[in-house]
Design a protein that fits this description.
Elements (H helix, E strand, L loop, with lengths): L5 H10 L1 H6 L3 E6 L6 H12 L4 H8 L3 H12 L4 E6 L4 H8 L21 E5 L3 H7 L13 H12 L11 H13 L4 H12 L4 H18 L4 H11 L6 H6 L9 E2 H11 L10 H14 L4 E5 L5 E5 L2 H13 L28 E4 L3 H6 L10 E4 L5 E2 L5 H6 L5 E3 L4 E2 L14 E3 L20 E5 L16 E5 L17 E6 H5 L11 E6 L6 H9 L7 E6 L18 E5 L17 E5 L8 H4 L7 E4 L8 E4 L9 E4 L7 E4 L9 E4 L5 E3 L9 E5 L2 H11 L3 E5 L6 E6 L5 H21 L4
Parallel strand pairs: 1-2, 2-3, 7-8, 8-10, 9-11, 10-12, 12-13, 13-14, 14-15, 15-16, 16-17, 17-18, 18-19, 19-20, 20-22, 21-23, 22-24, 23-25, 24-26
Antiparallel strand pairs: 4-6, 5-6, 26-28, 27-28
Length: 753
């Protein structure tokens, strides 16, 4: 049954301390879904168990399915691994993924080798026959619905956010809540969504309204399950501005991990986001996203160090509701997957004439061959997970048939060239071409005068026609191969410019870009004059909030002063610096700073510690080449997050008493660095350190009961240590002394001192 908690239980097992200890190096989690694509699953696993360079990974992505399977097998065969395959739908899917031999159906198959090292595969599935087919000798863990008390405990944790003490729950709401929870029939998903629905309004009137609506729905639908009743009510309760954003989720494939950056830009292009005074549309869209997350309608997959959501996904049941409601409102076509087995006809009747949005998950060539004259008013067309390389002529039908198209996303579709006819899509607002392999764009791109977002990477050169697209707001052109001139200073609505080169930037009059909030400049910069470059940044004083400078090769980042940019709060610098600029040259409101590959010889802390509003400091690989860093008393008065990663030469970090009084999170990746003063950081609650199986054994004995630890997902190889909540001041001091003592002992035990 969907929503019963299979994935939640699997995640608890996957992240359990003893499991982390047993599988220290090779752990991976892969989403499978009903539309099982082995290549996609293999790539998910490979990215988590292989430490490859960007260039190596690009080569791997070009492999065929059987080659990917062989590649994965080669990385796993000599190691003990744990792999979770989440949401396997059929025995055939399992056999296809594992490439089980018909001659030996009891083996783990040709992809997941059994090397006698204690490796494990964990499958979640709605169907018992899948589990028995995968391993007939084991007994599947069958999930049970929650008991009445378990259901209530889960609900109150979601609904009564501000009421810790059970005795303080309003009695009238408790009675209504228990009656509504009873309608959920013990299904966790329904209970969680119901709790999210009610947590926003603690009035008796609102709870009574939801209570009565649940009863009315059940009476009307008869056999309808409680979960669909609750989900229907959660949709009805959405404010008008959130409903189209929710319906838009129906366009994404099942179990698809969605980039939130892309999602927000799509919502803006669709016209779902309302303009707010003194707030960018992208910020408003992010508020919409967080509202849907708080209502438990979107699940968070990955967050940044600052807790911003980077990736998300949608539960199967909630996606089904979105599809159902989207069809009711003609939001999407009647069939969003072109499947030749289900729909053998090539007629355009596959799609409703009222259809406004379509997403294609498979068989591009067949979709291209359909007569699309019955859907002339299509506004959005998105492609997903399509293999193969497509000719330029195969894309002509898009411009010929969909004259009023606003959104076209071809991300991941391997295409030779974009046809020049695309310039006829004059209503286009969003054009996604990332990871298509394109090297050139046609000059006709300049005809897209309504284009707001262009998202592409790895072009050989960007055609010098962007200046014509005066409505452009979000321009992503990272990793250009050539450095030809590019005029952009006529695009005065531009808010995000990512990937322009130093030489291209300096040839533009930046004072005209009065709306530019986020700027990323990259490439060679040895010919850039420092004063001229510094002045070009200073001219953005009224709007610039985020600046990323990335120098290639051996060229050095031009020295610059940013003190005249009062809104600049985020600064990333990657590349050699002759020396660190002085404190007064930094933006006065800087809150986030990242330095990487700067090759600084002098300790940066005496300068950086004086930044009055700095909250997050990341010093990455090669940023500092010295052996010691010292933070003086009263240094970093507001710093909350400190990351020290890849500082190979650093052996000592000395933090004087009174420094970093608000530091909450510390991360480092090398135990040869000894840290003094850790026990004075009374607000420190999270530490991320390098992982090793010996470390886990050592740590469990040394830091309990004040600290909990888990293994971070992915390839980072980190242990996440969290201080338990609710400790007294005395216990907090004891916990920090315990942690400091442990790190010192482990440091010496490793033989570094």
């Amino acid at each position: 049954m969907g929503g019963i908690g299979k994935t939640t239980l699997a995640k608890k097992v996957y992240n359990h301390t003893q499991v982390v200890e047993c599988f220290p190096d090779y752990r991976a989690w892969a989403y499978v879904s009903q539309d099982c694509r082995p290549s996609d699953v293999y790539m998910q696993i490979i990215k988590q168990v292989c430490t490859s360079t960007k260039e190596q990974m690009e080569m791997v992505e070009k492999l065929q399915e059987h080659e990917l399977g062989d590649f994965l097998h080669g990385h796993l065969k000599d190691n003990r691994y744990l792999i979770v395959l989440d949401d396997v739908w059929s025995p055939a899917d399992w056999s296809c993924l594992a490439k089980v031999s018909n001659n030996n159906p009891d083996s783990l198959g040709n992809v997941f080798p059994d090397g006698g090292k204690g490796s494990r595969l964990l499958l979640t599935t709605r169907h018992k026959d899948v589990a028995l087919h995968a391993d007939a000798r084991s007994i599947p863990q069958e999930m049970q619905l929650l008991s009445e008390q378990e259901s209530w405990d889960l609900f109150r944790g979601k609904a009564f956010l501000d009421h810790v003490d059970a005795d303080r729950y309003p009695p009238d709401l408790v009675q209504l809540g228990r009656e509504m929870v009873d309608k959920c029939n013990g299904l966790p998903l329904a209970i969680v969504v119901l709790g999210g629905l009610l947590s926003r309004n603690m009035s008796h009137t609102e709870w009574r309204k939801v209570h009565d609506n649940i009863n009315a729905y059940l009476a009307k639908e008869g056999s309808q399950t409680g979960v669909m009743t609750v989900l229907n009510l959660s949709y009805i309760d959405l404010p008008s501005y959130l409903k189209p954003c929710f319906l838009h989720l129906s366009l994404f494939p099942e179990d698809y991990v969605i980039s939130t950056r892309k999602l927000l830009l799509l919502w803006i292009a669709e016209g779902f986001v309302l303009q707010q005074d003194r707030q960018s549309m992208k910020d408003t869209a992010e508020i919409y996203l967080n509202e849907l997350i708080n209502r438990n309608l979107i699940q968070v997959v990955r967050t940044s160090v600052n807790a911003r959501v980077m990736e998300c996904r949608v539960h199967d049941f909630i996606r089904e509701l979105a599809i159902e409601k989207a069809k009711e409102h003609n939001f999407i076509g009647t069939n969003i997957v072109v499947d030749p087995h289900l729909f053998p006809s090539t007629s355009s009747s596959l799609f409703s004439s009222k259809s406004r949005r379509q997403s294609i998950f498979s068989d591009f060539e067949r979709y291209a061959s359909i007569e699309h004259y019955s859907t002339p008013y299509l506004r959005s067309l998105l492609f997903f997970n399509l293999g193969g390389i497509f000719r330029t002529s195969q894309l002509d039908f898009i411009a010929k048939c969909f004259k009023v198209l606003r959104v076209l996303d071809l991300e991941g579709l391997r295409i030779e060239n974009v046809p020049s006819i695309i310039g006829e899509l004059i209503h286009l607002r969003y054009l996604g071409l990332r990871h298509t392999g394109l090297k050139m764009l046609p000059l006709s791109i300049g005809n897209l005068r309504n284009l707001q977002t262009l998202d592409i990477n790895n072009l050989k050169r960007v055609p010098d026609v962007i200046w014509k697209i005066t409505n452009m707001r979000y321009l992503y052109i990272e990793e250009q191969e050539e450095d030809d001139p590019l005029k952009i200073d006529t695009v005065q609505n531009l808010q995000i410019l990512s990937g322009i080169t130093f030489n291209q930037w300096i040839r533009n009059n930046s004072s005209k870009l009065t709306c530019l909030e986020k700027l990323k400049i990259e490439g060679r910069c040895e010919l850039v004059e420092e004063v001229e470059f510094s002045n070009s940044i200073a001219k953005l004083h009224s709007s610039l909030k985020s600046l990323y400078l990335k120098a290639s090769d051996e060229s050095s980042i031009p020295s610059l002063s940013m003190s005249s940019c009062p809104h600049l709060c985020k600064l990333d610098i990657k590349g050699r610096m002759q020396k660190l600029i002085e404190t007064f040259q930094f933006p006065q409101n800087l809150s986030q700073l990242t330095l990487e590959a700067c090759r600084l010889d002098c300790d940066p802390m005496p300068i950086l510690e004086k930044l009055p509003k700095l909250l997050t400091l990341r010093l990455r690989a090669g940023s500092y080449l010295g052996k010691e860093m010292h933070v003086s008393a009263n240094g970093f008065p507001r710093l909350k997050i400190l990351l020290l990663l890849g500082l190979k030469e650093l052996v000592l970090l000395n933090i004087e008493k009174g420094a970093m009084p608000w530091l909450m999170q510390l991360e480092f990746d090398d135990f040869k660095t000894e840290i003094f003063g850790l026990n004075e950081l009374l607000n420190l609650v999270e530490v991320k350190i390098p992982f090793s199986s010996l470390l886990v054994i050592f740590m469990v004995k040394k830091i309990k009961p004040f600290w909990d630890l888990t293994r971070l997902a992915g390839t980072e190889g980190r242990i996440h240590i969290c201080r338990q909540k609710g400790l007294t001041l005395a216990s907090s001091r004891q916990a920090l002394e315990q942690l400091a003592d442990f790190l010192k002992q482990y440091h010496r035990w490793q033989g570094f001192v």
